[in-house]
Amino acid sequence: MEGYLGETPVDISTTEYKDYTPTDWAMQWIESYGGNDGSHHKDWVLDQVARILKGTPITLKVAKWENGQSEERFSLGEPPAEYWKWVKEMENGEDGPNTYEYNFGVAP
User: Is the model's pLDDT at 1 over the cut of 80?
Assistant: First the structure.
């Protein structure tokens, strides 16, 4: 789009999302991205939900254009150690470490 002015970080605690719980955020990701075709995209949504439920911080930026249009853009920060521990647990199985492969998926 022409006239793109960039993104500005927003403090979520000053928005309508201030009272969102991890469950609310997980549902937001499912509703926003769960309808994309392809198992690789579904894997990504599942991974993002796992990250949220394990405590990964969520950031909000607002993108703006010269014509006055704006768009909220949510993203996830760095996942905590608890998430990485859980991934390792998912990879372990009856044959020991790395029995299974954890699929992080591909963003839509």
Answer: no
pLDDT tens per residue, range 29-76 = 999 999 989 999 999 999 999 999 999 999 999 999 999 999 999 999
Task: From 54, 47, 44, 49, select the one nearest 85 (Cα to Cα).
Answer: 54
Alpha helices, DSSP H, located in the chain: 22-33, 39-53, 81-91
Which residues make Cβ contacts (< 8 Å) with residue 43, sequence separation at least 6? 103, 104, 105, 106
Instruction: Please choose, from the candidates 16, 26, 102, the residue with its C-alpha nearest in 3D space to the C-alpha of residue 58.
Output: 26
* Angle at alpha carbon of residue 34, lines to 28 and 35, rounded to 5°: 125
